[in-house]
């Protein structure tokens, strides 16, 4: 008998209440790229009827978390991934659904080698938030760390 392991999207949806609250959709999740979508939902609109900045931040942060889990899930027995700091820029007005695409900014092997050497590696995840027409409405950079277990 074989067991089917839950996907990263299923794990995050089950364990992170904001992912469920915002109804985030996992389009693609791999160690190379993560793509999440925030559907157009009037309950999460701002004063100009687009997605609220906080909802867009959560979308981008969730996309970064998905790629971190895909890239470093095999390290979870010895380290905890934590966001250290984030910076976001809102570039163009968004209306309708928005999509966040995240990519690692440092090779996985380099991060794991630093962890193997006893360090607490930090690495960037860069995210682009796009509107339905494909225009970038925001850009975010999050610095993550793998904190070794005590």
UniProtKB/TrEMBL annotation:
Write out the coiled-coil annotation as residue ranges: none
| CDD domains per record | PaaI_thioesterase (cd03443)
Q: Which InterPro entries match?
A: DUF4442 (IPR027961), HotDog_dom_sf (IPR029069)
Q: SUPFAM superfamilies in the record, alphabetically? A: Thioesterase/thiol ester dehydrase-isomerase
Question: Which positions make up the signal peptide?
Answer: none
Query: By what name is this protein known?
Result: Acyl-coenzyme A thioesterase PaaI-like protein
User: Could you name the domain of life of the organism this protein comes from?
Assistant: Bacteria
């Amino acid at each position: 008998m074989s067991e089917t392991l839950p996907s990263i999207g299923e794990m995050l949806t089950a364990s992170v209440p904001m992912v469920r609250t915002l109804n985030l959709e996992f389009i693609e999740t791999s160690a190379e790229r993560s793509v999440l979508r925030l559907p157009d939902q009037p309950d999460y609109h701002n004063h100009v009827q687009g997605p609220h900045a906080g909802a867009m931040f959560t979308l981008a942060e969730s996309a970064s978390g998905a790629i971190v889990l895909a890239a470093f899930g095999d390290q979870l027995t010895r380290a905890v991934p934590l966001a250290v700091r984030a910076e976001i820029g809102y570039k163009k007005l968004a209306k309708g659904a928005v999509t966040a695409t995240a990519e690692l900014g440092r090779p996985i092997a380099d991060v794991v080698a630093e962890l193997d050497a006893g360090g607490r590696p930090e690495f960037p995840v860069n995210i682009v938030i796009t509107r339905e027409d494909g225009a970038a409405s925001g850009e975010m950079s999050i610095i993550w760390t793998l904190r070794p277990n005590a």
